[in-house]
Amino acid sequence: MAVNFQQATLRNGLTIIAETDPAAHSAAIGYFVRTGSRDERSAVMGVSHFLEHMMFKGTAKRTAERLNRDFDAIGAKNNAYTSQEMTCFHATVLPEFLPVANEILADMLRPALREEDFTTEKGVILEEIAMYEDNPFWVLYEKAMERHYGAHPLSHRVLGTSRTITALTAAQMRDYFRARYSADNTVVAVAGRADFAAVAEQAQSLCGTWERTGAVRDHGTFRRDDASFETRDEKVNRAYALMLTEAPAMDDDRRYAASLLAQVLGGADNSRMHWSLIETGLAEQAEAAYDPRDGVGDFLVYVSCDPDRLDEVWKIVERQADELAATLTEDDLARIRAKVATGVTLAGERPGGRMQRLGRQWMYLGRYATLEEELARINAVTVDDLRALLREFPLRPRTVGRLLPAAK
Question: Which residues are catalytic?
């Protein structure tokens, strides 16, 4: 691919980055803001996600209806998301509509934050929280994160809680917006067929007056001890268990080995947990994942099964985790490496995927690596690298949570 990386930074600190490709048939743009639930005070937990919703409620020049109509008029595939560490607003369009998409997104990022919209949307957020409370995985995951990270802000729930959202005021949201949605805390990522000089010039026109606030992130510290909890719910009739352990951070080069290791243990197919739990009929779900974060990372293991078999299933999970280093083979690595490399390549074939990779990479690392360099790092991982990783991150200490049906 004839991909060219380009970068510019405005005087106010806003950064524009791009992978331009004259052969692409589309263009994608995303505004990445380095703020999420870990950047919130506990009292306003959920404000980042709530604020994402408010961006779609209108600006000084656009109503919510006009925002939707303007995106529709250019055939945009647009959306937004909030995580623990960033918020992103993005659109993919035909190349000739990229300037229009850029203007709409930049306008969105300076929302009106009207009191009446805030009040209406608060009800929507509370309904979303209630919906997630019916999802066994999310119930366990949020409780496990709270127990695993303790007083560290990574324990915060992205959606917040019913209590924090109910108590949140529009004034608190405006204060948070002014502090975090600043020029120097925002990256604009572009991929596909685009004129970078024109994109940068337009960004100066659209965003050049945005303030610089010097926003920073408190990385904090947390204790790493074994922890466990159990909760019962009359709404469930299966058993669920989830484990979190420490893993490499996003800026740690061992993240490539960690990604492969999680797939060996609990990938969707041909993993240790798949063959021992899914193929044997002991569990309906059995998976492992690696989540690299800013300054820290974690491995996650999750299973669901018949309540009477949970102890049996969990013993197998622990045995697989404890024996992983001793049982790793070259065949394991070759099979999983090809699968991971395929996934990375497929995600990077379209401008929308390249834009997301580019924006997230810059958010965490502040530097650029080509897709080919990423693939080379994946392909360079050896079995010895995986074993060395397990010596440093031995899947212990463990935070383990269980969700079971209500006691009869």
Answer: 52
In tens, the pLDDT along 96-124 reads 999 999 999 999 999 999 999 999 999 99
Is-contact 158 49, C-beta < 8 A? yes
Rounded Cα gap, residues 34 and 360, in angstroms: 10
Measure the N-to-C terminal CA separation of the chain; round to a whole number of Å.
61
For residues 53 and 126, what is the distance between their CA atoms, to the nearest angstrom? Answer: 12
CA atoms within 13 A on the CB side of 137: 9
In Å, how far from its chain's centre is CA 56?
20
- Interval 257-282 mean pLDDT: 94
Q: Provide the 3-class DSSP secondary structure of residue 352.
A: helix
DSSP single-letter state for residue 158 = T
Instruction: Report d(CA 304, CA 283) in Å as an integer.
Output: 6
**Which tokens belong to 157?**
């729930």
Task: Please give the backbone phi and psi of residue 203, each rounded to the nearest 5 degrees, phi first.
Answer: -60, -40
Cβ(88)–Cβ(164) below 8 Å: no
d(CA 217, CA 180): 10
Phi, psi of 137 (to 5 degrees): -60, -50
Q: What's the Cα-to-Cα distance from 81 to each of 55, 56, 105, 206, rounded to whole Å? A: 11, 12, 14, 22
Between the alpha carbon of residue 281 and those of residues 17, 136, 276, the distances in Å are 48, 20, 9
Q: Indicate the burial class of 56 (C-beta count within 10 angstroms; 0-12, 13-18, 19 or more).
A: middle
> Could you give the CA distance from residue 191 to residue 362 in angstroms, rounded to a whole number?
14
Query: Among 249, 380, 271, 394, which Cα is nearest to 321's?
Result: 394
What confidence tens digit (pLDDT) does each residue in 340-393 have? 888 888 878 899 999 999 999 999 999 999 989 999 999 999 999 999 999 999
Cα–Cα distance for residue pair 157/161, rounded to 1 Å: 7
